[in-house]
Design goal:
about 575 residues; ABC transporter transmembrane region fold; Rossmann fold; 3 domains; four-stranded antiparallel beta sheet; 19 helices; 12 strands
Length: about 575
């Protein structure tokens, strides 16, 4: 029941179609199972023509009709179930991807990327195979069992009771094996996510792996994870393979008993018929067919139970994602017009609640000012940007925009005022035009070209084989500097009021940096600019330089003032040129 509750939201819009498909399954199975009864009656007609008023040819016609009807309904049922299954896959994938995009940055940062991809792709496929298709097979099996029971009791209630009495043995065996397998399938899903995550991590950092000469060590670690995955898959598959042979063994014993008792009932001796109607060879033949059909659904259900168990584990992993907290967005206010000022109001923050990264940070940031944050690695420069963007929230204090706490501002609306250029470039598979225009819906080619010119990117773009229509990707052969220029052009197109440069030039050569300096100056003119930089030469023109150490402000001033003080900034600046 809990599994159905988890699956039900994704069946929205398909429940009516699903109900119709179940009706088709009912008609298809009923038509199919009526044929052995007619065949048995036809055999009886041959042996004793007085057993039925129908002619032999009438039985042939009826069986042909049921065969055609059952085949058509079966096709419709399978088609509809396949259609519903693909709809469910689409709905679940949309829900998981939406959750990933709406989840807090902290959730993404703390999750293994390979495991996230595994849930989005592999686990969703498991749900479609095990729960949607599996449930259809399960329902079909239940219908078959119901019809078969009716036909068996119609033919001979003594043999029917024997079948019913012995059935729980087969069910008990299959349930015992399936229950034993459940933990193995859960472990298999877990190990699959770990292996995918490790592989993705290695591929994304292949240059570092080769540079550090740790490829052999990574292979050993992968081999251990792979071996663990192999063992869990082996245990799961071994357990699954035990279900069919064990139930078939029980079924063979039951069929042997039925044949023996049925042969006795065929004997023309009233003492052996126990008051039942005349039981003939055709009836025994039909009954044995039904007995086999009766046990077959149990075998199929046993196999389906294995798939359902695997799919249930995958659905639980998906549900864990869906139930995770969304990015907190309690703010409802929006800023009319432009952001005139920003203020950091006594902010204290820690990622883990143990080590404090930012300590009582207080700063006024005025419109049109260029504020630079400098300091040693780990002093909290990038963390301040994360707090301003509300990727994380401080334990105390807050940022204010136009004297409104960012906690009270609607996140998406506030972020529309901000453009960021990060150290890590994001180039997706698409044309150059699409990569730049991604930041502004409905951007024209003229606007994109103008943004590229401002970013000093137009010259190299025009040299590409197809110019702005050239297909590019993160691994398409563009240099780091060229990819960064495209990212800068993307922000140029936004024309934001607040510009954030977080180590934006750290991966760019000196020549490219010189090209960018003018475009950055044009971009930041009259706007609030926050710059995080290790190259202090890039921030000497800043209106205010904030020097951080251990999450606290230790010095403030412009470049000349800080150099004259002869303090920490002076030493830091000189260390880069000596």
């Amino acid at each position: 029941m809990e599994t159905f509750k988890r699956l039900r939201p994704y069946l929205k819009g398909s429940l009516g179609l699903f109900a119709i498909s179940l009706l088709f399954a009912l008609l298809a199975t009923g038509s199919k199972l009526a044929i052995p009864l007619l065949a048995g009656r036809a055999v009886n007609k041959i042996i004793d023509p007085t057993t039925s008023p129908l002619r032999f040819v009438d039985f042939i016609v009826l069986m042909s009709i049921f065969l055609v009807v059952g085949t058509v309904f079966r096709y419709v049922f399978d088609y509809v179930i396949s259609l519903i299954g693909q709809r469910v896959i689409k709905n679940i994938r949309n829900a998981v991807f939406h959750k990933y995009t709406s989840a807090p940055i902290s959730y993404v940062d703390s999750s293994r990327k390979g495991d996230m991809i595994s849930r989005l792709i592999n686990d969703v496929e498991n749900v479609q195979t095990g729960l949607v298709s599996g449930f259809a097979a399960f329902y079909d099996g239940i219908i078959a069992i119901g019809f078969t029971l009716v036909f068996m009791f119609t033919l001979n209630w003594v043999l029917a009771l024997i079948v019913v009495f012995l059935t729980p043995i087969s069910i008990f065996v299959s349930r015992f094996v399936s229950k034993f397998n459940s933990k193995n399938f859960k472990q298999q899903a877990k190990d699959s996510g770990l292996l995918a995550s490790f592989a993705l991590e290695g591929l994304n950092n292949s240059e570092s792996v080769n540079t550090l000469n740790i490829a052999a060590r990574r292979e050993e670690e992968f081999d251990k994870l792979n071996d663990s995955f192999r063992k869990s898959v082996f245990k799961a598959n071994l357990g699954a393979s035990l279900i069919n042979p064990s139930t078939r063994l029980v079924n063979a014993l039951i069929n042997g008993i039925l044949i023996a008792v049925g042969a006795l009932l065929v004997i023309k001796d009233g003492s052996l018929n126990y008051g039942v109607a005349l039981f003939m060879v055709g009836d025994l033949s039909a009954f044995l067919t039904y007995a086999s059909s009766y046990m077959t659904p149990f075998n199929e259900i046993s196999n389906v139970v294995t798939e359902i168990s695997y799919a249930t584990s995958s659905l639980k992993r998906i549900d864990d994602v869906i139930r995770s907290s969304d990015d907190i967005n309690e703010g409802t206010e929006v800023i009319d017009g432009e952001v005139d000022n920003l203020k950091a109001n006594h902010i204290t923050f820690s990622y883990d609640g143990v080590r404090t990264i930012i300590k009582d940070f207080d700063l006024d940031i005025y419109k049109g000012h260029k504020i630079a944050f400098v300091g040693p690695t780990g002093c909290g420069k990038t963390t301040l940007i994360n707090l301003l963007m509300r990727f994380y929230d401080p334990q105390s204090g807050c940022f204010e925009a136009n004297s409104i706490s960012t906690f009270d501002l609607e996140k998406r609306a506030f972020r529309e005022h901000i453009g960021m250029v990060l150290q890590e470039t994001w180039i997706f598979t698409g044309t150059v035009f699409e990569n730049i225009a991604y930041s502004k819906k409905g951007a024209t080619l003229e606007e994109v070209k103008l943004a590229a010119e401002k970013a000093q990117a137009s010259s190299f773009i025009e040299r590409l084989p197809n110019g702005y229509d050239t297909m590019i990707s993160d691994s398409s052969g563009l240099s780091v500097g060229e990819k960064q220029l495209i990212c800068v052009a993307r922000v140029m197109l936004m024309e934001p009021e607040i510009v954030i440069l977080d180590e934006a030039t750290s991966n760019i050569d000196v020549r490219t940096e010189a090209l960018l300096s003018k475009s950055f100056d044009a971009l930041m003119k009259g706007k609030t600019s926050l710059v995080v930089a290790h190259r202090l030469s890039t921030i000497v023109s800043s209106d205010l330089i904030v020097v951080l150490k251990d999450g606290e402000i230790i010095e403030t001033g412009n470049h000349n003032e800080l150099m004259a003080k002869g303090g920490f900034y002076n030493k830091l600046y000189n260390s880069q040129f000596n």
